[in-house]
# Entry
Amino acid sequence: MFRLLCLSRGLICAKCSAQKSEPFVSLLKSRVKYRDHLMRRFISTQRRTVFTSFKNRLTSLWIFGIGTGFVLALGLKYRDSVSEHCECDVRKTNRTETVSKYRSAIEISRDLLQRIKDEVGAPGMVVGVSVDGNQVWCEGIGYADLENRVPCSPDTVMRIASISKPLTTAAVARLWEDGKIDLDAPVQKYVPEFPEKQFEGENVTITPRMLLSHLSGIRHYEKDAKKVREDKEKAKRLLKPPEKKEEEKEEKKKEEKEEKKEEKGSAKSKEAKTGQRKKEFELEEFYLKDSFENVIQALDLFKDDPLIFKPGSTFLYSTFAFTLLSAVVERAAGHRFLDHMMKMFRDLGMSNTVPDENDPIIYNRSRFYHFNKKGRIVNCPYVDNSYKWAGGGFLSTVGDLLVFGNALLYSYQMAHLKSTDGLLPGFLKPHTAKAMWAPVDKTEASWDKDGMYAQGWLVVEKQQKYGQCRNRRHYVSHTGGAVGASSVLLVLPRESAQVTDQKLTPPQGLVVTIITNMQSVGLNATALKIAQEFDKARDE
# Structure
């Protein structure tokens, strides 16, 4: 009865049960207790003279009723004058202030995202932004399911594709901290099923560190080693100065012959919407439907194939290298790779991140799309990603990816603090996080020409060449492309000089993630622009 009275008068918050008007609530509580005491006496007292007893008790109840009415009347007046707020009110106020501060950045970013969505013809997109560890904007635009007109929302679950690689890297880093993985040992120490390798007749060693930085020489989806090397050489020639005319003519003739061969032998179609050849999406292994019982079995796809390059010599982005890395994790951890990853997700608080399995019912899972030969959006074919859990096999939400980005940013910035008293330890040790985000020699990345690959991440270092010219900020990112999906996760740390201020506790910086249910969509530049908009708004 007391709670109902308080709720009816707005004196107790229905959500958090906090008492908004402490003095009056205490007074009302005492009156209710007295009322209950009288009622118990009225019911339990032995019968006396009926008329006298009833008359006395009736008088007491009348007095109590008048007193309670007076207290309620006083309370109504008192309620209007009190200025206390419950925790819910404080949260609402803080949320309103945050939205107000970033309103302009949200509007600009929403417009940018809508433009990109329209340009590429993506059915739906979801974006998430956090500033200094606080989520300030999460929104879905378009549809997660075109057929049933299900709109995208912050809870929409999509394929995150190669953002699975940073997740796997975090698992490797933890095992390394625990002394369970030697990053410079031959992979055969953990996975004897993977054969010893040779390159041009010479015995070579592949280590987990090489796998993390794509320097192992293990192929990607293209099996033709000669073709991969030729493509690399073509890319290098574009950067070289012009040579003699005779050599140029010979190169042109070779290129023309190669183009004719490709036209004859290629049974795959071009992407009608963009008019550009999406090589990766034309390869058969990208659409595998075979289910593999474990990551060791998945090695059969590539373990006997020759290396494309000598390990440690040349950067070659490879999802299969991460499949081998998942086998190393499984053996080092002592249990199944997926079990190990799911435990890590629980520790991080990523409750919506799961393997991309077809059988389970996964709430809010999106459907996935691509363009057919006529340029129309169609459903993507069924695929089984059990051959590449570590390199591109997980589903997630923008909320979970923000959690992951902030966890690593927190760990990274702990290394810059003079004192960590009163702060919880990071998910990774500070020196581990710094090593993970340190660029590695001889690496590169196709989605950002300013950066170099580190260990499971692309890293762009701070640089300013000329006064009053471009001031490049330090940031890390990873993009992803899968059947019917594209993604990006970008972390823009606050300037290190500001982080050393003990008044600022990690994480300090921007985390931006975008996921979409359309394949072959470049999102890194968009994520960086959004991060810069929110960075400006924070400092205003």
Remarks:
- Residues 411 and 428 are 6 Å apart (CA to CA).
- The longest strand covers residues 134-145.
- The radius of gyration is 31 Å.
- The chain has a mean pLDDT of 84.
